[in-house]
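Last lecture ended with a question: if I hand you only a sequence, what can you say about the shape of the protein? Today we answer it with a concrete record. The protein is Tetratricopeptide repeat-containing protein. Below, first the input exactly as provided, then the predicted structure, then a couple of comments.
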Amino acid sequence: MRNLYLLGFLAFILISCSPSEEELMQAGMEKMDGQAWAEAISYFDRALEQNPSNATALNAKGVAFFQQQKYQEAIPVFTEAIEVDSSSYKPWFNRANSNLELGNFKEAVSDYNMANGLDPSQTDIYYNRGLALLGMEAYEDAILDFDAALQVNPNQALVYFNRGKAQIGNNDPIGAMESLTNAVNLDGRNGAAYYLLGVTRMSALGESEKEEGCADLKMALSLGYTDAKSWIDDFCN
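The predicted structure:
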């Protein structure tokens, strides 16, 4: 009997010393801060063993998978988080980002729409949804989202760059040149933007813009954008 009592006492000590759900969550978040993604997941899994309905743990676990570029693994975890708490924009937004990375543009737009409806103040949604719409070749809608992102912060080179791409797709070369010019003015290291600007100048305006177009293409090549070389060889030498 003494041995049985002793075993029971030891079991009580082990149980009482095990970390709480809150402690496991805190440890997981600390691992996230240190970019120790796999270790963070192990803590979130232990928290979920105690409370399978912990939506924060599920969302954080999905983010840890996302940060490791394990998008296929992240999506079902975000789906679980949504099933537990569909009122938070975060898992909708994060699942959309995972689908965007996988090229599942229609699914991404659907989730971005849900996230936007739940919290319209989250302005990152506009740019990311614009990228998904651009991938779907829904150029007008993409431009509207890029415009919304620029209203929040007009100094975003990548937004102007992708706006320019959407405008090219929407047969608006003049508008595209304006957007791409803004892109290179804000980020002089974007070789792709210089390339698109040069090609658009020369395609839309011909000889009148040849000198500036060639200058853009040569800048693109100097920045490592090798696609510019064939245009330079054909039209600028």
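Comments.
1. Confidence is low (pLDDT under 50) at residues 9-15.
2. The domain at 27-93 is CATH 1.25.40.10 (Serine Threonine Protein Phosphatase 5, Tetratricopeptide repeat).
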